[in-house]
């Protein structure tokens, strides 16, 4: 099991105890700090680091320690996909796993001694979620998360993130409708792509800058580091470009030409032109349809071959078959989609899907 650890200054010593215990017992750990009991640390900073590792499936579980454990649990629970529990004895250690399916353990460094901590730790790591009547309750919490716009399918490291935002869902229903005109279809694809990228970029790092307003100097925030590059898979991916560029006008745009051979269903490459500094940028490969996953997987392989390191796939409609293929071929890549559909039909079209995205965008049917 891979575990991320984090603490503030008040939890530092207990974190070190936990760290030694985990290492001694063969766990793989990711220590995200703090490294000192003297230097003051704000608990939300390390709580968010650890919680994000758990939510993104980069580790299996997280452990957080502050003075009481309360601040850590409140902070960690702000990250969707995290179910952090404040545990103070043997019984709550067992219950938090068996009934609540907790994936982050929060402990009070000023409340627990070494012996109590190790007992709690062992129980929390060993206890399995019981499911049954508790599953229904756990699912209500997950449903609440979905109402807050996203759900996370799979347990990483690459995840499938589905956006349930009401505006996205409303527009997806419209593009599914066979009576939607080419003009409307195009506009809707752009709008959905923009709304999705608004959500996807939520985690982009910021840096502080100073600006001078007409009234006074002030601190403000700007995107840190190199920006994004988007890589549409031709043809249908082109339909998503403008919606994204409206939000991120400085993003560079690469192009990959692929089509799916109607007989073999294998992707055939016919064009590839990518930004020169692709290895320094975060790459969004965009294609409305993820069906067998052949095209998306080949496109991701191509951008990897050209040096890209941080890649996500953004699609509008995904089939489970395509999701499995991309996660299997590229386990580190996150898939963002507006919908996860049921299955593929005999011609490898997504059911219910929306038909042929390229034809509907360009009116070629
Ligand atoms: C569509 C779609 C994807 C691919 C998905 O493109 O835009 O690229 O099919 O199918 P897969 O997951 O089974 O590979 P298509 O091959 O129809 O080409 P087009 O965009 O040029 O119409
Ligand atoms: N490509 C599409 O455009 N639609 C599908 O359903 C499958 C592949």
Give a written overview of the molecule.
Strands 6, 7, 10, 11, 12, 13, 14, 15, 16 and 17 form a 10-stranded mixed sheet that branches. Strands 2-1-3-5-4 form a 5-stranded parallel sheet, with helices on both faces. 37% of the residues lie in helices and 26% in strands. It has helices at 12-24, 43-55, 70-76, 90-98, 114-126, 133-147, 166-176, 182-200, 238-245, 294-305, 320-329, 357-362; strands at 2-7, 28-31, 61-66, 84-86, 104-108, 150-153, 160-163, 206-212, 217-223, 228-234, 252-253, 255-260, 267-273, 282-286, 289-290, 310-318, 334-340, 343-344, 350-351. The chain is an alpha/beta fold. Helix 11 links the parallel strand 16 (310-318) and strand 17. Helix 2 (43-55) crosses helix 3, helix 4 (90-98) packs parallel to helix 5 and helix 7 (166-176) runs antiparallel to helix 8 (182-200). The model has no long low-confidence stretch (mean pLDDT 93).
Poorly predicted runs are: none
Q: How much helicity do the residues have?
A: 25-40%
> What fraction strand?
25-35%
The largest sheet is: 10 strands, mixed
Q: How confident overall, as mean pLDDT?
A: 93
Ligand inventory: 1-O-pyrophosphono-5-O-phosphono-alpha-D-ribofuranose, uracil
Helix/strand class: alpha/beta
Terminal residue distance: 51 Å
Treating each run of at least 4 consecutive H or I residues as one helix, how many helices? 12
From the spread of the alpha carbons, the general shape counts as globular
Our Rg estimate from Cα atoms comes to 23 Å
Care to count the β-strands? Answer: 19
